[in-house]
Amino acid sequence: MSGALLLLTSFMASAVETVEALTIVLAVGLTRGWRTATTGAVLAVLTLALVVSALGPLLVQYVPIDALRLVVGALLLIFGLQWLRKAILRASGLKALRDEEEAFRSGVAQLAGGPTHRNTIDWTGFVIAFKGVFLEGLEVAFIVLTFGASSGRFGLSASGAFFAVGIVALAGAAIHRPLSRMPENTIKFMVGIMLTAFGTFWGGEGVGIEWAAGDFTILLLVLFYGAVAGLLVTAIKRRNVHQGHQLGDSP
Amino acid sequence: MRWLVGFGRFWYDFIVGDSAVLAAGGAGALILGLLVVEAGSPVLAQVVLPLGVVVTLTAGLRYPRG
Fold this sequence. Notes:
The structure holds two protein chains of two kinds. By secondary structure, chain A is mainly α. Chain A contains eight helices and no strands. Chain B is 82% helix and 0% strand. At the A-B interface, helix 3, helix 7 and helix 8 of A face helix 2 and helix 3 of B.
């Protein structure tokens, strides 16, 4: 059961970050050439894969499992709370929803001014594509790494990320446009809940808690945090109606 | 030196992000869980930790730039 949740969380977190990275790669591809964009993106993915495959076994081999679960749990908990907070603010209307079409248009506008040599590598475009994919992917690499190390299932956590990156990249290559119809905030909401649940579970084990329901606790925590997040969205929406809050710009 | 500061800032932004309340609260909830376990109430810790997380999330929403 926790294996399926682990796979799903890794898949969804990777899908969201890949959509954001794809937006940057498409903007670079259209303005600076596809060779530049794909070279930057592929090198960034390879660098991330190298980091995960090098650090993963080292973590498991040399760090005691309880210490690892405490540190990983604390980091996942903080990550999950950040994702969840942002998703709650967006769902309740306090923060604008991320618009991939708009991010794409502004990226194209910023890059369009420079020189383009479509048959050679344009270094400005390369750096932007590499950095975009690397930074968006770092969060995914972190999740894959920590999930794999804490559960001892690197294959499962890496598979989720691998399939997500593959599916989103294929979709992007097919339509050559950002995937603006993807319900990004809904997915971020669910990933935030799942990361918070896994963080609580592993962090709790790290401080010495023996969960009475075993692995089933993760599902209980997902349901509990989901209910709390839903209540918070409702409460904020109600407060907005009373106070007439405005939307803020958001990245 | 400048590289080191940049490196530290990158990891601060990566982990703490735009809400120090969540980072401090998340760590605080785990410390609270540890204290309850050490006090000899591991069953209570199973309730205290998730509640501490919920309090942290609520505080992070209340003080979004904290």
